[in-house]
Amino acid sequence: MWRRLASRRERNPGRRSPWWRRLIVGFGLLAVAGGAAFFLAWQPAIEPVSTPDRASFQPDQIRKGAALASAGFCSTCHTTDETKPFAGGYPLKTPFGTIYGTNITPDRDTGIGTWSLAAFRRSMREGIDRAGSHLYPAFPYTHFTQLTDGDIEALYAYLMTRDAVRAEAPEPDLPFPYSIRPLLAGWNLLFLRVGPLPAGDSGDPVLERGRYLSEALSHCSACHAPRNALRAERAELHFAGGMAEGWWSPPLDRSSPAPVPWTRETLFNYLHSWDSAHGGAAGPMKPVVAGLGRLPEADVRAIARYVAATMGLPAPDRPAPAEKPTDIAPARADEIHRRGAGIYRGACASCHESGGRVPFTVASLGQHTTLAGPLPDNVIRVILEGVHPPEGEVGAIMPGYAGVLDADQIADLLAYLRVRFTNAPAWPALKDDVRRIGAEEPKG
């Protein structure tokens, strides 16, 4: 009989196994894959602890943690109500949906009041909360994993000595399958490299300090690097520019389109408050500058030194600054540009044609990096929303024109600014971009 069966197989070598056998094999493979996924995803809970007493932390350690929290911009994503710092609820929109900053006050029910230092360290190093759930990488644990133990301990001391606020953060608004947290185990397997920042080989302690602050604590490439389809930073394009909350984040490498090349000093001025050659921060960069303002000046200079070293010499094909008269050359002065020039004269020229004599304006709009960038989004947002200094502080101020100029007028103005103040190609579909950005809901 066995010979007959063998001879049949030899005569029909391509014959498929019975359906029930294939089904069993398929279920077996699924079981193995599911078991492997569970093994990767499962993380044990860490036992809750009594909330540490403030007296258990040294004052110097708390002060150090305060500076680190500012340089890590913790309050930016974990605060919606300034009277309740770190109580969570801030909506961070991603291509996959909206994720909300969690409550990181020492409230025992809705915050981290039951977290031990070990639980806090695991969240910072591995992206796993005290209960064993995976955190979404909108929380930049891929950078915070590189922090030293001492800095993690100081951050823990600072957060555990804040006022406890009872506030439940909304659940992430993510469609299937992104709402399945265990899938993040696979993401971590692909993209998370746990452990402190490797020692550099520059031999320059200031440069190494700047590297540590930029790469680990301040996580600069989280915004200033492009991301792949799974929203992981593309390591091969480190500092090559990206997007953050709808704003274009310019490259911090030699591909920067800045018409006026950045230097250590101009970077320091910008990160500290304002630079006369490049202007000041707007959008998501504003809280970054505010946070860095609470660091020692030496640390901000170290960051500027590291970024300047990363940028190096400008790329040879960088567009030169455009120095053009108020009226565009006749060959480029079509009807759109004439209309834009009229809007500029009526709404902008009183400040921006002063040659920088108006406080907190640069000598020429042609010096702004974003006007020479590949996307108009930043310029559109500034025109719509304006620029406003923090309440009670001195800084750049500009009215928003959302209720004054319509989409067609703003598009004409943008076309004029681009052709007059840069040598870059025209932005396409400006009216569509203005309408898209103007229709966005304001952040809560």
TrEMBL record:
Q: Which GO terms describe its cellular component?
A: plasma membrane
Q: Which cofactor does it need?
A: heme c
Q: Where in the cell is it found?
A: Cell membrane
Name the positions where heme c 2 binds.
Answer: 220, 223-224
Q: What's the record's note on cofactor binding?
A: Binds 3 heme c groups covalently per subunit.
Chain ranges passing through the membrane? 20-42
Coiled-coil ranges (or none): none
Q: Name one GO molecular function term.
A: iron ion binding
Question: SUPFAM superfamilies annotated for this entry?
Answer: Cytochrome c
Question: What range(s) does the Cytochrome c domain occupy?
Answer: 60-163, 198-311, 335-421
* UniProt-annotated binding residues for heme c 3: 348, 351-352
Entry keyword annotation includes Disulfide bond: no
Name of the protein described by the UniProt record: Alcohol dehydrogenase
Q: Which organism's genome codes for this protein?
A: Methylobacterium oxalidis
Q: Any idea which UniProt keywords this protein has?
A: Cell membrane, Heme, Iron, Membrane, Metal-binding, Repeat, Signal, Transmembrane, Transmembrane helix
UniProt cross-references to InterPro entries, sorted A to Z = Cyt_c-like_dom (IPR009056), Cyt_c-like_dom_sf (IPR036909), Cytochrome_c-type_DH (IPR051459), Membr-bd_ADH_cyt_c (IPR014353)
Q: Which residues are heme c 1-binding?
A: 74, 77-78
